[in-house]
């Protein structure tokens, strides 16, 4: 199962075709509904829940969690990932300091960075997106 937390729409459509089971968590109802509509329009499966990703408790353990938190990062979700021992995490961030904090927490708890890339999604601005993939050791 792939569990998406936070901003689910951009990733849900891309991952739904590859995932056996997809559960997307989005706090904003309008964004969650847009995600549902886009999945349906493309004939893709998946469940989209409107909830606080920090507090949501899925049934079972996901194989992968994809995080795209706000600038404040995902310290609550990271703690939950550590407790549940999710085997793989993909963390997308627009804020390098909170990304570094959360990745350090995961690494200290037994995950290792396997891939990392910085993407200049907003040319000629200071904004940068970073994607880090971690696996449980």
Give a concise summary:
With 137 residues, the protein is an alpha/beta fold. It has 4 helices and 7 strands, in the order E-H-E-H-E-E-H-E-H-E-E.
Features:
137 residues, 32% helix, 4 helices, alpha/beta
Could you explain the architecture of this structure?
There is one protein chain. By secondary structure, the protein is α/β, with parallel strands linked by helices. The chain has helices spanning 9-16, 29-41, 75-84, 96-108; strands spanning 2-6, 22-26, 47-50, 64-68, 88-93, 111-119, 129-136. Helix 1 links the parallel strand 1 and strand 2 (22-26). The longest helix is centred in the first third of the chain and has 13 residues, at 29-41. The radius of gyration is 14 Å and the shape is globular. It starts with a strand and ends with a strand. The model has no long low-confidence stretch (mean pLDDT 87).
Write the layout of secondary structure elements.
Blueprint: E1 2-6, H1 9-16, E2 22-26, H2 29-41, E3 47-50, E4 64-68, H3 75-84, E5 88-93, H4 96-108, E6 111-119, E7 129-136
Which structural category fits the helices and strands? alpha/beta
Mind describing the biggest β-sheet? 7 strands, mixed
Major sheet: arrangement of strands: 3-2-1-4-5-7-6
Distance between the termini: 19 Å
Number of helical segments with 4 or more residues: 4
